[in-house]
Amino acid sequence: MIFRPLRGTFRLLTLVGLGYLASRHLQRLVDEQARAAGNDVRQAGREDMRNPPKQWDKLDEELDQSFPASDPPANY
């Protein structure tokens, strides 16, 4: 039959899709638990800032990525 190989492909795509949905659901649960615990820490970069600055250069990015580390970037 022509459709026999498509069954395996359909099963694989179904499993991949379910895995993706499960990972998204798990990430939401982890994010909700972190917010409930008061660990609301944003990712580095201006994309996740509430009020991003209009001008943002490489040094600003490196400083933001290094926070709260004690060592500043080496190329300032």
From TrEMBL:
Where do the segments described as Disordered lie?
37-76
* Superkingdom of the source species: Bacteria
Q: Where do Basic and acidic residues bias regions lie?
A: 43-58
Q: Which protein, by its recorded name, is this?
A: ATP synthase subunit e, mitochondrial
Q: Write down the species.
A: Halodurantibacterium flavum
